[in-house]
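ARCHIVE CARD
Drawer: 12
Card no.: 0347
Subject: one protein chain, sequence and derived structure
Cross-reference: see card 0346
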Amino acid sequence: MESGDMGGVKAPAIFSIQNFCLHDGPGVRSIVFLKGCPLRCVWCQNPESWRTDPELAFKAHLCIDCKTCVNTCPQQAMSAPGIRDTQKCDGCFACVENCPSEALVCFGKYYSIDQLVESLRPEFPYMKNTGGGVTFSGGEPTLFLEFVGQLSKRLHEEGIHTALETCGYFDSEKEIGFLSDIDLVLFDIKLYDEKAHRKFCGKSNKMIKQNLTRLSASSLGGTGPVIWPRLPLIPTVTDTTENLTGWAQFLKNIGISFLTLVPYHNMGDGKREWLNLPLASEFPALTEKHLQVSIDLLEKNGISCFAPGEEDWAQTDFKAVSDPRTVT
């Protein structure tokens, strides 16, 4: 596909498809990463996910200064390797196609639902044998829920379990309804304090808390997907006593007693350089001692903690692990 329109359904640009993953839901999974995110978390490891459109990145260390990109640009937008006039550039990415050293890359490609299903099909046997499936991540997949919902239905027809990772920042009854077509929602929570959430993530967390509350109620009532919260553990930011105890009490109040802690790793700076973005804020390294302190605090407050890929899905009414989805 060359545009984000699929028969009237807004299609996302996909910036990565990763296979044989074990950390984003049960079993062996493929992760489909969608571009576009409403938050701007200062520690984000995927800055290529922020914008919805495909975008050009320049890996200066791979450039051989052959100037093929300059000579092959049909709009004459490229004046030197990695330097272009964005007003002239029409996003044809001829520079990427002709770059012999792969110094120029495009983050984002449009797929039809059929194309995505076929690209994922070789992994289906592994998914079915392990109780795995496909996880939609990003970015923020709820920006494209009609597309994701149709894709999820197609995967269900193939007997494939689906999961969706969300930051929780969406605002409509329609979106909550679309999520009922998903088997599992991995719900990311970050800062409990609204002022701190605005500071570090760029948006209020009121909507996030409301959506988590509503989704938990629908899950417990048997009308919605399984909800599993995850919290990135950022030293001095999300691992504070106030933040962890605040979330622990909130989760217990909405009927959730488990949480995945995702350790912080600074892996996004290289991508920021490629995209000509400011480098991320620096945070202290997460030590095993600090991780254990966080775990002890949460468990003291009634929340069972898990590492990514080590979740005890039996804590939920998660039938897909022992009774894989079948289609009649």
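Annotation on reverse: The radius of gyration is 21 Å. The chain is about 30% helix and 20% strand.
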